[in-house]
């Protein structure tokens, strides 16, 4: 329905069946798009009605209400992403910025992150894309159950499931199940995408039992080629060589290929062509010493007599001309059951090997330390051993989260100012910082020793939304406590309480229910003790080794696990069957076995084993993948980053510097007297 221009309006914007009277001056003021349209020699300059395509009418209404300075709640619009698309397309930059901020801080959730990720990529909004992607990757186990996941286009799905940073809590079979759900949601339309789903799975990391389970799903079992690919993967993982087994005849391969989807046919053709060229270039060393054989019937069983392949002749072989197609086999007679034995085409073998060669997933983790960055107004809080009346010592330093960047240039990156630690009269002493998922928690501490000025707030920093939020109040004020996470619970263990009393109390906070619970007390009063979660239990290293069973709410002592004399641990890092331990005032790296004893150099049985020594005292350590990183600061202010590779058993110094050196990026220390926090930081 046409609408006339009335009052001060001088142009009508037509969006679909809707019309919007507007002022050219106001549109040009807010949008470079309309400024160019009305200010240059475009035909729209003289038009009274301008049709706008590719924009949602409701989104356009929201834009114009904002331009006219009318109060509008963008979040209450049916689709904030449509408003974002419209503001981006029509270059309403201020509204686009508001939309992005609202999406990040209020709208971005497990339910909306995939839609946001797709839209942000289409609009080239890089920061928003990375934030939405980070949430989608980290929360994969929940995101895969949303409707938005089932609606992903295949290209985005493959990119998402194939991402190295996908947080699979149940292993690679979880990725297969997610892909299967997506396929079955629109089976007729998507059944040709099976191979693209298989491409997303890290088959090198999946157990044989899971691959065999995949064969039971109809979408796999009803297609010969998919069955062949998975059977070939099983064969390779079992240590067999599929190239030396019976290969499927070309006529059979063609019949099977006809049932494969379009993408699969292309892949098979490419792989078979590649394998054919490779076979011509790389023949068995003994091929010139023995005749080649042609398999005329699948019932014929042939074994080659090859000293290199270590195979004996079981039956006579029939020589054929070199010009004929030949297939060499080397499979044990017991493994062949007439027509039931496995046959693989060269293309199938190539696809199987390619799927197995995909590198393992690795979350983008960085070694991270709470240290200090130069600042003229900063203060260092007194240590717990200082006298109450001693003077404060000023230093250059505000508390910062600092991570170590490896690569062609290794350097420190001050990442986040812990501003909540500076809200009291001074930086609190004895507070702890931990990371759980994508959230950072700052817990406890005392601002002025001996004056009862406690930090009773627990603050949470959301890494994706880049904002602090008050989480809760600490149940019992304390400092120099130990903290560790087990599932959704944060355990706060021991520490100094009021009147400098060393505590044995343990409390836990559930981040899901937001509720506190009191746990059984420690067998011994402790502070700054090393602790960690290990296989569903909490281990604490004090004068003895204690472990806590959450199901029974009981602490247990390991009497046979006496600590080495003169050693007090402050960092515990679980890895495999071991817990790795370091202390503030020594250089040893020790590992502890909860399950078995090891024999030391003196022939004595112990659960502790010294692996070697770092070059400097290990005041702060953390484990990232298979590497233990140590951050230390000596009395002269020199800083060191060292590493121990668990797989290689090697120590190395990665970086050293001083607060005055350029590559320190302003970092002044690594909190040498008290480990505030040292952990792997996930950074997508």
Automatic annotation (TrEMBL):
The highest taxon in the source lineage is Eukaryota
Q: Which residue range or ranges hold the BTB domain?
A: 9-76
Among its keywords, does the record have Secreted?
A: no
Q: Which Pfam families match?
A: BACK, BTB, Kelch_1
What the entry lists under PROSITE patterns is as follows:
BTB
Q: Which Gene3D superfamilies match?
A: 1.25.40.420, Kelch-type beta propeller, Potassium Channel Kv1.1, Chain A
For this UniProt entry, the molecular function terms from Gene Ontology, in alphabetical order, are:
actin binding
InterPro entries noted in UniProt: BACK, BTB/POZ_dom, Kelch-typ_b-propeller, Kelch_1, SKP1/BTB/POZ_sf
Instruction: Could you list this entry's UniProt keywords, alphabetically sorted.
Output: Actin-binding, Kelch repeat, Repeat
- State what protein this is by name: Kelch-like protein 38
Q: Which organism is it from?
A: Zootermopsis nevadensis (Dampwood termite)
């Amino acid at each position: 329905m046409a609408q006339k221009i009335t009052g001060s309006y001088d142009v009508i914007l037509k969006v679909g069946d809707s019309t919007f009277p507007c002022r050219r001056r106001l549109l040009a003021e807010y949008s470079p798009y309309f400024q160019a349209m009305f200010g240059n020699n475009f035909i729209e300059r003289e038009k009274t009605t301008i049709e706008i395509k590719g924009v949602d009418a409701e989104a356009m209404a929201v834009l114009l209400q904002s331009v006219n300075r009318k109060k509008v709640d963008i979040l209450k619009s049916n689709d904030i992403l449509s408003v974002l698309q419209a503001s981006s397309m029509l270059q309403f930059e201020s509204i686009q910025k508001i939309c992005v901020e609202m999406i990040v801080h209020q709208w971005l959730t497990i339910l909306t992150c995939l839609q946001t990720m797709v839209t942000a990529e289409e609009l080239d909004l890089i920061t928003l894309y990375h934030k939405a992607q980070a949430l989608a990757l980290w929360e994969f186990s929940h995101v895969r159950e949303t409707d938005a996941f089932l609606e992903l286009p295949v290209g985005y799905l493959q990119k998402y499931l194939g991402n190295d940073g996908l947080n699979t809590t149940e292993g690679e079979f979880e990725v297969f199940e997610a892909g299967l759900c997506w396929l079955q949601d629109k089976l007729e339309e998507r059944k040709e995408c099976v191979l693209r789903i298989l491409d997303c799975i890290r088959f090198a990391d999946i157990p044989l039992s899971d691959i065999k389970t995949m064969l039971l799903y109809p979408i796999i079992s009803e297609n010969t080629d998919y069955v062949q690919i998975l059977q070939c993967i099983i064969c390779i993982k079992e240590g067999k060589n599929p190239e030396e087994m019976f290969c499927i005849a070309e006529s059979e391969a063609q019949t099977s290929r006809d049932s494969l989807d379009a993408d699969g046919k292309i892949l098979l053709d490419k792989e078979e062509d590649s394998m054919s060229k490779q076979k011509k270039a790389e023949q068995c060393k003994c091929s010139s010493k023995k005749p080649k054989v042609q398999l005329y019937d699948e019932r014929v069983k042939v074994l080659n007599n090859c000293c290199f392949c270590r195979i004996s002749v079981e039956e006579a072989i029939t020589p054929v001309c070199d010009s004929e197609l030949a297939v060499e086999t080397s499979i044990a007679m017991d493994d062949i059951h007439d027509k039931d034995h496995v046959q693989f085409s060269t293309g199938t073998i190539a696809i199987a090997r390619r799927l197995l060669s995909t590198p393992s997933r690795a979350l983008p983790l960085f070694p991270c330390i709470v240290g200090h960055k130069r600042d003229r107004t900063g203060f260092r809080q007194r240590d717990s051993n200082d006298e109450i009346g001693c003077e404060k010592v000023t230093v250059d330093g505000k508390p910062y989260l600092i991570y170590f960047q490896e690569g062609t240039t290794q350097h420190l990156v001050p990442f986040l100012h812990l501003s909540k630690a500076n809200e009291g009269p001074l930086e609190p002493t004895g507070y702890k910082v931990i990371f759980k998922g994508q959230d950072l928690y700052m817990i406890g501490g005392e601002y002025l020793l001996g004056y009862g000025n406690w930090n009773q707030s627990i603050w949470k920093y959301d890494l994706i939304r880049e904002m602090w939020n008050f989480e809760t109040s600490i149940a019992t004020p304390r400092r120099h406590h130990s903290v560790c996470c087990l599932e959704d619970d944060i355990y706060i263990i021991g520490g100094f309480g009021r009147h400098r009393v060393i505590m044995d109390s343990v409390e836990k906070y559930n981040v899901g229910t937001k509720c506190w619970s009191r746990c059984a007390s420690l067998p011994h009063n402790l502070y700054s003790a090393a602790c960690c979660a290990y296989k569903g239990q909490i281990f604490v290293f004090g004068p003895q080794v204690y472990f806590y069973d959450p199901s029974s709410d009981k602490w247990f002592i390991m009497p046979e696990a006496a600590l080495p004399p003169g050693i007090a641990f402050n960092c515990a890092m679980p890895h495999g069957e071991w817990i790795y331990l370091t202390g503030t005032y020594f250089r040893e790296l020790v590992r502890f076995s909860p399950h078995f004893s090891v024999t030391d150099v003196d022939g004595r049985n112990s659960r502790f084993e010294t692996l070697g020594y770092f070059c400097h005292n290990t005041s702060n350590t953390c484990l990232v993948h298979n590497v233990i990183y140590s951050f230390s600061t000596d009395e002269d202010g020199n800083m060191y980053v060292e590493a121990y590779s668990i797989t290689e058993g090697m120590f190395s110094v990665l970086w050293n510097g001083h607060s005055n050196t350029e590559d320190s990026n302003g970092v002044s220390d690594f909190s040498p007297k008290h480990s505030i926090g040292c952990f792997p930081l996930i950074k997508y």
